[in-house]
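Per your request, structure below.
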């Protein structure tokens, strides 16, 4: 079921993106190739840093539940 929904929504979104020139007009922002700006070492360092910070926040939140929204 998930595959069917994904295939249908992907087709619909691609149709509308091409119909309204979403990518060509830059509505989604500019594509950035990190090694072009930071080099491969800098890009790997940045991605690793983001992953480590994310892990630290998630680990802290599992203990404290400060970032949980009550429903």
């Amino acid at each position: 079921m998930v595959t069917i929904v994904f295939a249908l929504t992907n087709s619909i979104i691609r149709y509308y993106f091409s119909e309204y020139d979403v990518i060509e007009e830059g509505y989604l922002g500019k594509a950035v190739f990190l090694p072009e700006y930071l080099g491969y070492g800098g890009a790997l360092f940045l991605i690793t840093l983001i992953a480590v910070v994310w892990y630290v926040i998630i680990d802290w939140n599992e203990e404290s539940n400060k970032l949980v929204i009550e429903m």
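The first helix runs from residue 2 to 19.

Regards,
D.
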